[in-house]
UniProtKB/TrEMBL annotation:
Lineage: Eukaryota, Fungi, Dikarya, Ascomycota, Pezizomycotina
Species, as recorded: Sphaerosporella brunnea
Protein name: Uncharacterized protein
Length: 315
């Protein structure tokens, strides 16, 4: 039996209307990220409109777009392909560069001499309010820290609850737009956002300190993933905040200890039967994850990309 001809936009629209179905939004993804972003058909009907919608929704400066079968779509063919079955209901892959090119965001609390280096998701679509919620979650880990830290910030939960973002930006503002509008030459090298508790004027300024007064306590965020076999069931655990001076091996040992404490396993023989593998990986530019080399000597603060721990264990 031969393959039926693709259903054009007019025929498809009439077919959907007949059953009272509204045409669904187009679905877009970026390489290395399985999250789906939806863009209404009306906003992406033309190639130019789609590029503008992608820039706004995904924070990506688009170079090209692939159809659901990973074939490049010519700009002149976009209107036909995007409205034709089966392409219309698949996922289009956006190829391009993030508007926020540096994945590293440094959050500084000057009054506490504290800095947190975190890796933003790609696309970097996040509001200032979402960033503040994430930062507060990280700070809570230091209250008190489960790690035996020689140097730790002194703070209270009340202070954390009252932490605000620099310059009084609205919590609904887009982080990328805020960073672009800050016009800070130092932030062109690495984006920095300042936080603090409410000042007399209710505003935390964006002000880089002199080198002599740079934050003494620098922490790095490590992503934490468990995979249970058989079935490779993924369990996303809370990110872990660790001192930037620790080596990858030291962080790996900390994560394994937390894993055993969670499972309540103390017997070494039982542990050997449960733990299948534990990998420490770093994000690559192509969206993949690579094993970190020289883990005994590599300090976490020297790694430029996101770090992820993946524990694979048997049920």
């Amino acid at each position: 039996m031969g393959m039926s001809a693709p259903m054009g936009e007019g025929m498809l629209s009439e077919y959907l209307k007949e059953f009272g179905i509204e045409a669904p939004a187009l679905k877009f993804v970026v390489p290395g990220d399985d999250r789906i972003r939806s863009i209404p058909l009306a906003d992406a009907k033309t190639y130019g409109g789609m590029k503008m919608a992608v820039e706004d929704k995904l924070q990506i400066v688009m170079d090209s777009v692939l159809d659901p079968f990973n074939h490049p779509i010519e700009p002149t063919d976009w209107e036909i392909v995007s409205s034709t079955w089966p392409y219309r209901f698949g996922k289009f892959t956006v190829v391009g560069q993030p508007m926020f090119s540096d994945p590293v965001m440094t959050v500084v609390w000057e009054a506490k001499s504290l800095a947190i280096k975190m890796w933003l998701p790609s696309p970097r679509r996040i509001t200032m309010g979402q960033l503040l919620t994430i930062v507060r979650g990280y700070l809570v880990q230091l209250l008190p820290s489960p790690l035996d830290l020689s140097l730790a910030p002194r703070m209270t939960r009340s202070e954390i609850n009252n932490v605000i973002i620099q310059d009084g930006w609205s919590r609904s503002r887009d982080l990328v737009r805020v960073v672009q509008q800050t016009w800070c030459t130092k932030c062109l090298q690495q984006s920095t956002v300042f936080v603090g508790t409410t000042q007399p004027k209710g505003v935390v300024g964006h002000s880089h300190s002199a080198a002599s007064t740079e934050p003494q306590m620098v922490f790095v965020v490590v992503q934490n993933l468990w995979e249970m076999i058989p079935g490779m069931v993924k369990q996303y655990r809370p990110d872990l905040l660790v001192p930037a001076t620790l080596t990858v091996s030291e962080v790996k040992a900390i994560i394994e200890k937390q894993f055993w404490d969670t499972l309540g396993l103390e017997d070494e023989d039982e542990r050997d039967e449960v733990l299948w593998a534990h990998e420490m990986l770093t994000a690559a530019a192509d969206g993949c994850w690579d094993k970190i080399a020289d883990q005994d000597t590599m300090a976490l603060g020297n790694i430029r990309m996101a770090v992820r721990s993946i524990i694979t264990y048997k049920e």
